Amino acid sequence: MERLTDLTVTSFADVLASDAPAPGGGSVAALIGACGAALAVMTANLTVGKKKYADHWANAESARTVGEPLIAQFLKAIDEDTLAFNKLYDAMHLPKDTDEQKAARRAAIEETTKEAANMPFHTLTLCEKTVTVLEKLAGRINPNCASDFGVGAASIVTAARGAWLNVCINLQGLSDEAFVKDLYARAKAIYDDVAARADALYRKIDAQCRPVCNQTEG
Predict the structure, then answer these.
(1) CATH class given for the domain over 22-210
(2) Is 186 helix (H, G, I), strand (E, B) or coil?
(3) How many angstroms separate the Cα of 192 from the Cα of each of 55, 112, 118, 149?
(4) Which of 4, 27, 33, 150 could staple 205 via S-S, CB 3.0–4.6 A?
(5) Is 169 left (phi over 0), alpha (psi -120 to 50) or beta?
């Protein structure tokens, strides 16, 4: 099976727009997260080596070291999320003609649904790590890439929101109440934290990037 990450942007958009049940929102959340992490690394790269920002080189290099592996992890999650859904889809189509088959099918659906919920949770944890990288860079980058930094922050908010929704919708189908309560609580804590922190970074960049004419607004 061809990996989604090996597709061109056009081909990925085409398969996403098709009537295929996957890839879907979970894989897209991971893709957007990868873009957010990449933009964070980009701002670090545009800072290191510029004499004017020499005081920030060490910080930018440190952020880059942490950020680069996150890009790869997000990209891996694109395919892993779709694979998890495909396992669930296959479980839902297991035979159910006998009591034994019905029991086996229920168990398979329960197990693969847990996996399908855990994958976007993993994406949430990557978002949490990435917002920490963004905060490390905030105010200590080449100001010419401020808008790129802002798009990175906005991307992480969007990725976290997408991952959160995919955790929640998969938890709806589970009978293991202890698993549901535990994963829901952990996911909500991470989502609320990431959304607040990344939104704050975005708002600062939004104010910084506006033209002088914004002073006359409202």
Answers:
(1) mainly alpha
(2) helix
(3) 33, 26, 17, 21
(4) 150
(5) alpha
Q: Quickly count helices (H) and strands (E) in the chain.
A: 6, 0
DSSP state of 172: T
What CA–CA distance (Å, rounded) separates 66 from 72? 11
- Half-sphere exposure for 83 (CA within 13 Å, toward CB): 11
User: 4 CB contacts (<8 Å, ≥6 apart)?
Assistant: 12, 15, 23, 27, 78, 79, 82
Can you tell me which residue has the tokens 């297991």? 94
Binned at pLDDT 50, 70 and 90, residue 67 comes out as very high
Angle at which helices 57-92 and 99-137 cross, to 10°:
170
Peptide bond just before 21 cis, omega within 30 deg: no
Entry pTM: 0.94
